[in-house]
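Weekly structure sync, notes
Attendees: PL (lead), two postdocs, one rotation student
Agenda item 3: pending single-chain targets
PL asked that the sequence for the first pending target be pasted directly into the notes so everyone works from the same version. It is reproduced below exactly as submitted, 71 residues in total.
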Amino acid sequence: MSNKERAVQLLNRIPDSRMYYVLSFLEGAAIPDETPNEETIAAFAEVDELKKNHSGQKFNNLDDLWASLEE
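Predicted structure, written out during the meeting:
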């Protein structure tokens, strides 16, 4: 019996009143793994560099962040 078949058997034994507890886990597990593209990897590297140099903009609240984006 495969792991998937065993999982289906176990799911069939769970009463509807308890199914809520496993739904979040199953939804998370069903998301495929994604490999970041070059642009995303470059953005991560840029953030790491900003953190090392203690540079970049910092905001105390969302209003200030949104205002900076409108400039």
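Discussion points:
- The chain has a mean pLDDT of 91.
- DSSP finds four helices and no strands in the chain.
Action: rotation student to compare against the earlier draft before next sync.
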